[in-house]
Design a protein that fits this description.
Layout: E1 2-11, H1 12-22, H2 24-30, H3 33-45, H4 47-67, E2 81-85, E3 91-95, H5 97-105, E4 108-116, E5 120-129
Helix pairs in contact: 3-4
Length: 132
Amino acid sequence: MIFGIGTDVCDLRRIAATLERRGERFAETVLGPAELTIYRHRRAQVEARGLAYLGSRFSAKEAFSKAIGLGMCHPMHWHACEILNQPGGQPFIQLHGELADWFAERRLRAQVSLSDETDYAVSFVVIETEPS
């Protein structure tokens, strides 16, 4: 059964402007440790790849927060939710700490889809209840 659905569209030009103003601190605020490592690697290779990665993760976390119905309120916060990829590329949501506990107590599971283009990143998240 569907528990919640969330979607978000992120203008990558706004992310770029925020990075210019705040620098690496913005990425450190939004990304968890594993994501930050990937972001830095991609950005070092091609600036646009790093920007798209950061924007897609920002978008996915916003969509996830909408789907669970909490927004960015406790126990949901930026570092408690990481959007990572399986070896084949499929994105998945890795939760940490109190958010992981909150999610498990409700027997929920998440599906996430990401896409980005030159100026935009979009994310779609479906939260389901696990069958009894």
